């Protein structure tokens, strides 16, 4: 495997080098009330190659003008990138065929517009999706869960744009690594720190998952979709951090002072429960299966299978 490109390892401003990808289609209604029509819209994803920050834009259709407007919205909010990486639109999957044909059809106009803005538009070689793994992972995190969360629900373009923005906040709140190696520091570094300089915090809202669909207003249904997305995303993200191995030997690599995520199925959106390992408690066979964790609300005891270690600076550099 080759070395990481310089855009991935050179410190600089967020969204200076970005990866671009499309996902969809998502089916929405053109207006509220009776007589509405079902139309398509798409998700345009921008991911920062340095800090894995994600920006989501709803695109009304696959035209050059619609994409350029979404790019202008991105530049207005995140700043102008120096280079944009994208695939070349070659897709075998039927659902992605129209997206691929759009990119191939507008290859030259997109490059011309980017060059006018002093942006270097780069396309990866054909049939090499692994060259764009960082934005493919972002699309997977957003698209697959959004499809399962939305299901057969048909929202308006404005409601879908709001949902995309809330999903973006969830993805940008994920813990990357501890802020420091101090055992008393219970804060973690997230992509949100590079965007606004502090963690992203959501407004408190009541749990709507157990309320009947017919009793919810449109705004409450949108909030319910967000809460559903949070639960699914949290479980999938935690499973990526955990190593699925058999418990025949002591495979725990937790040490005192490590920062961990506490798996909690009832955690509200954007509320990641973090803590530091105070003490490992061995069993009669000498294998530790339980640990005392220092959190902002005191010391708690949790099984190791409910703890996910955040990578340290040595892990990231090694």
Automatic annotation (TrEMBL):
Q: What is the lineage of its organism?
A: Eukaryota, Metazoa, Ecdysozoa, Arthropoda, Hexapoda
From which domain of life does this come? Eukaryota
Q: Report what the protein is called.
A: Uncharacterized protein
